[in-house]
Amino acid sequence: MSALGDGLNQLRQLLLQLEDQSIDQPIGTAEEVLQAIELATAFELFETESSNLLMQIAANLWDRVRQQDLSAEELQVVSEKLRAIGYADVEIQELLDLEGEE
């Protein structure tokens, strides 16, 4: 999973570089504009789908984690990992509350 997250971060950096280049080197023709829009849309869709997949993987793994008897320190590590891939603090707290109820 770490490799997938690293890949997404590299993709994000590439998109930022492309954006910077497009400012420095404006697109000339209408066809180039359409191609740039198509490429940007494809990257955005890929990033969205990848993010959704990461969230689903994390949810599945959280279900497995909840079956274990974790210490407070271990729960903190899990919370930090969830936060790093996009979970909001409210969502993490909800998961922890569910863990406490079981």
Summarize this entry quickly.
The chain has 4 helices and no strands. With 102 residues, the chain is an all-alpha fold.
- How much of the sequence is in beta strands? under 5%
First and last CA, distance: 27 Å
Strand element count: 0
Spell the H/E element sequence.
HHHH
| Average pLDDT metric | 76
Summarize the biggest pleated sheet: none
Molecular shape: elongated
Structural class designation: mainly alpha
Q: Give me the Rg, rounded.
A: 19 Å
Oligomer: single chain
Low-confidence stretches: none
| Helix content bin | over 70%
SS element count, helices: 4
Any overview of this molecule?
The model has no long low-confidence stretch (mean pLDDT 76). The longest helix has 37 residues, at 30-66. Helix 1 packs antiparallel against helix 2 (30-66). By secondary structure, the chain is mainly α. 84% of the residues lie in helices and 0% in strands. It has helices at 2-24, 30-66, 72-84, 89-101.
Question: What order do the helices and strands come in, and which of them pair?
Answer:
Elements (H helix, E strand, L loop, with lengths): L1 H23 L5 H37 L5 H13 L4 H13 L1
Summarize this structure as a short list of keywords or feature phrases.
102 residues, 4 helices, 84% helix
